[in-house]
Specification:
The protein is α+β, with helices and mostly antiparallel strands and 214 residues long. It contains six helices and six strands. It is elongated, with a radius of gyration of 23 Å.
Length: 214
């Protein structure tokens, strides 16, 4: 589809939800007019319309926190956009990674698991040890103990996979992942760093190569 098929509102604007292409995290909600969107597509960096200043602004123009565009997607009604970006710094003017950080409601019975959430919990256990906590025990024993557990869990994964036991393999991989995350906290390595490294290796050739018949 092209820009002409999008539905801008009465003020000539369309909301743009900016997401991190690496983590999928929602970074900010901004607005674009047609010119801002055209510049975004041309320059492959986010350009927005400031409703307060009534002018265009390029994200990172003064802060250096540029957002390089990976993809732009319209919703089913074509009146809202998702801008997937690789960011060069915090998305929020406060210096926070995302503009969305103020909790309004959190269910007491439902919770969404995430690797980042688990990492944060492990970091909390390291900073504030809890008596009887296995995680606190690992951090107390230190790097050698954590590495030993990773070795043991790796072996368990191999055995389960060799036995073609899917359920057991899933269980052991989860154990291994937990201990690897513990190592990451101990070594001050964040999930974003791992995602960025994996993303740097994921090179997609968008050109379809035609194989010549032999």
């Amino acid at each position: 589809m092209n820009i002409d098929e999008l539905k801008f509102d009465a003020a000539g604007l369309i909301p743009a939800a900016v997401t991190d292409a690496v983590s999928g995290k929602l970074l900010t909600l901004a607005y674009m007019n047609r010119e801002a969107l055209e510049l975004t597509l041309k320059e492959e960096r986010t350009v927005f319309w400031s409703r307060s200043r009534k002018e265009l602004w390029r994200k990172g123009e003064t802060s250096g926190n540029v957002q390089r565009v990976v993809a732009v997607t319209a919703d089913c009604d074509r009146d809202a956009l998702e801008i997937s970006v690789i960011k060069d710094g915090p998305a929020c003017h406060t210096g926070a990674d995302s503009c969305f950080g103020e909790s309004v409601f959190e269910s007491a019975t439902l919770s969404a698991f995430s690797v980042d959430g688990l990492y944060d919990m492990l970091s909390e256990r390291k900073s504030n040890p809890k008596e009887g906590s296995y995680t606190s025990y690992l951090f107390d024993k230190g790097l050698d103990k954590i590495l030993k557990k990773i070795g043991e869990e790796s072996t368990e994964v191999i055995i389960a996979a060799k036995d073609a036991d899917k359920r057991e393999t899933v269980y052991e991989i989860a154990d291994l992942a937990y201990h690897v995350l513990t190592l990451m906290v101990e070594a001050d390595i964040t999930p974003d760093e791992i995602r960025a490294e994996l993303a740097s290796r994921h090179v997609v050739d968008k050109k379809v190569k035609q194989e010549k018949p032999e």
